Amino acid sequence: MSLSIVTFRRASLVVLLVLLAAGALPTPAHADAFVVNSTGDGVDANHGNGVCETATAGQCTLRAAIEESAHTPPGDTITFSTSGTINPATDLPPILGNVDIDGTSAPGYAGTPVVTVDGSAIPPDSVRGLIRLEANGCAVKGLRLQNFVNAGVSIFNGDGNHAEDNELLGNGYGVTISGHSSQNVISGNLISGNAHGGVAFSGAEAATGNRIEGNNISDNEGSDPDDAFGIRVAAAGLGPVAGTEIRGNAITGNEGDAIALAPGHHGSVAGTIVDGNTISGNRAGIQVAATGGADGSVNGSTMTNNILTDTGGIEIRGDNAYDLTDLVLRGNSISGADHDGIYISVADTADASGYAIEDNTITGSGWYGIQIVADFEASAPGTITGNTITDNTAAGIMVMWSAHDITIGPDNVIARNGTLPMPTGVVVANSASSITVTRNSIYDNDGLGIDLGLEDGVTENDDGDTDTGPNGLLNFPVITSATLSSVEVTTCGNCTVEVFLADDDGDNGGHGEGRTFLGSYQTGGPTSHWTVPIEGAVECRSVTATVTDSDGNTSEFSANVALPCPPSHRSARTPAATATPIVTVLPPATSTPVPLPLPTATPSGGVGPVVQPPATGTGGSDSSWTLAAWLLVGLGVAAAATGAFCLRASKH
User: Fold this and answer.
1) Are residues 589 and 630 in the same domain?
2) Are 618 and 552 part of one and the same domain?
3) Which of 25-34, 426-435, 437-446, 464-473 shows the lowest per-residue confidence on average (mean pLDDT)?
């Protein structure tokens, strides 16, 4: 390097330092901390000077702080040294940088907001929220945001924002998320009394990984109950709203759905997780409405560990080529649903294949415990396993129309269902086929355990099993004999026979419900006679059986056959040895009674003593008397001692 270059660089550095010292060049920008000390609505007097100040010297309003933050680098904080109500006259400006607005800093805050932002004075044509986040990494916490015609908090084209521990009351919506907005968190808020809903994805596109967790979302009511929901995840087809997590919220008393997933026309809400929410007293519970458009997707969504009480159950509807595949409904507790506990209905070419309904408790529903309906070209194969389905008004499980390839079992408990029509354990109706019912505990239902048809009673076997109907009206097996270790049946070849300890309630024309699974056997060859080994049978009870053919069709339960019932064994009693029976034979009234001492003997059966009188004995006058019977006496010591026995005699 030449000396002239070194000299130039040194000179340049000296000039730069002189300019900085003189203030001729701006100093590097830095994040600011703005402290709101006024509940007024004045604007910032000098944008970009790094100072929050209105025309009143020293006064910083929320509006001025937001305005000034737009001119500073990311990382600003807005705190409060005052509390009270702020009444903006117009929309607050959008937040365009990485800003935290912290209402918990206000004096007197103790877990409940003491700073209120009230939108009552804002014109009704407002399109913004009171707090509109159009940036990344912002936070709004500890504020009460109320009475705004649109939303309390609006996130638009923002990622990684947080709305926490706020009260969002009486707005159009509590929170809206729209545009390209991902990885946002809505948590710990009270969201109540909003006219259209609690949390809404509205016009969202490419919004992934948003979380709504730990909120109290209640009493959102409006003129249109279809809109007054708790949470609605919707996609308008502009991009996927995927991977939304809805966890641990309390959602109560809303006029519409507690949680609604609405993919819309060509829209996707795939991979939505609805987990651990407590839902009660809403018009409906969890709704998946993939209808009214085409080609939308809810694929891979899960509804797990939710508690639904006195509200709607879980309802999934799809039509027009919607993709509802691989849904998981697991570990939910559903009680007192006003209609079905779980309802899946698909039409046209909608595809709901691969769903799993597992380990749920469904009790006290106003209609079916679980209902699966598929028609036309729709598809709804899936599995129903490990559920407890009890005390529902109609059948425990209803499968109807063209539904097919559904496995019910193992390990479902289906009991005490039915006071209205179809009070059955499991109903397979219309043209439903390949509905396999296997290894469940079905008992104490008002009707049949399994009914192939709409409450038409036992479907009697036909010769050659040539009839058609639900599950092909497959003939049930005929049990010809039963022991405690095996059951002999006549049934189809290449079929699976399952034997159960019957629920002997006597209500089903002698056909049992299968309460306890005892064993199964895979038959071979044509229709014939087969031996099914069993374990766990109980003497004096009855067994029943089903059969499932190679296409997965399961029959109704067979007629009951009683298991062996051994005779009871009575224990011998020891006779009283000290008593000597005395027999008095009474002749006709004119004769004098003659006492007859009699010997005793104990019969081989161990019951005694038995009195065997002499062959003859006189009773006075010219009469002769014969004792014509052995006499069983002394069934107890008292009886033998008092002579409490009878004697039959005949006169010669």
Assistant:
1) yes
2) no
3) 25-34
